[in-house]
């Protein structure tokens, strides 16, 4: 396992130069948490470049690798074709995969992994429109099945809707001013590329430090385009019901909005007793079915952050099923 981790980290150094697809985050911690082994079946609900999937396979587990991005699945299929006897690839948003498991002949899982970050390939491919580092079409769709692109959203949404998106999904204090600026800019010419958007944002938020002022706006648009928070909210209860006794769910988040949702849900299903001021006594929690493996989120080591700057904001939370009660 250590040799695999070193191999993938070496690949990550190449990726930072823009040339590699596989950049798993918190790889050793994920493997340690999910405890993959022969005879176990694990769902990687966001396989991305396949780094976590490969580690789980190499530890002996069988893996259902799911992703809504057909490009990711095509890459994983080619990279891991030697493991095809223990690997099943499914094109699906992780929010919908639980209801598709019975058709795959699967009722229960030994483990579930969700890595909620954007893949390195998506960020490094200008044609996907996820990054402001290079110019490309303002797309941001993780799946071609997603309805509207970021360009359509920016050019067609009302000022009020854009303000709400930037404030709620980007936590951008200047959300209202940025939205107004974009509405004025699109009246002159349509905003169609990532650099069109960056230039419009810089009118309101000029760059003064190392962090690009477009960061929060790009995050907000990506979340809105792909419905990321609603997908996570839907997936948590549906997927956790598929975990067998002793099985675990591990989730890696990359920003506070995701982490709050995961933290809240994990707390809800791991508290045996709940109490409210208006109740005469505490009551048993009807959702209680898990225990927290991580009382605090696991974060990347300084060594990993040096090797992979995209790991800096990653947080891993893990729960384990301790009774058969369905949440």
Verbal overview:
- The structure is a single chain.
- With 327 residues, this protein is of the alpha/beta class.
- The protein has 2 domains: 2-121 and 229-321, 3-Layer(aba) Sandwich (Rossmann fold), CATH 3.40.50.150; 127-226, DNA polymerase, domain 1 (Orthogonal Bundle).
- Helices cover 43% and strands 14% of the residues.
- It contains 14 helices and 9 strands.
- The protein has helices at 2-15, 27-34, 51-58, 70-79, 97-100, 120-124, 150-156, 159-170, 175-188, 194-204, 215-226, 228-240, 256-270, 302-307; strands at residues 41-44, 62-67, 87-91, 109-115, 243-253, 273-274, 283-284, 290-292, 315-321.
- The strands form 2 sheets. It has a 7-stranded mixed β-sheet, with helices on both faces. A two-stranded antiparallel sheet has the order 6-7.
- The longest helix has 15 residues, at 256-270.
- Mean pLDDT is 89; it is low at 1-19.
Supply database-style keywords.
alpha/beta, single chain, DNA polymerase, domain 1, seven-stranded mixed β-sheet, 14 helices, 2 domains, disordered N terminus, 327 residues, two-stranded antiparallel ribbon, Rossmann fold
Low-pLDDT residue spans: 1-19
CATH class of the largest domain: Alpha Beta
Please give the radius of gyration in angstroms: 21 Å
CATH superfamily of the largest domain: Vaccinia Virus protein VP39
Q: What separation lies between the terminal Cα atoms?
A: 34 Å
The major sheet is characterized as: 7 strands, mixed
**How large is the count of helical segments?**
14
Helix content: 40-55%
The proportion of residues in beta strands is 5-15%
**What is the overall shape?**
globular
Average pLDDT value? Answer: 89
CATH architect. name of the largest domain: 3-Layer(aba) Sandwich
Total of domains: 2
- Number-wise, the strands total 9
The SSE string, one letter per element, is HHEHEHEHEHHHHHHHEHEEEHE
CATH domain topology of the largest domain = Rossmann fold
Structural class: alpha/beta
Q: Walk across the major sheet and give the strand order.
A: 3-2-1-4-5-9-8
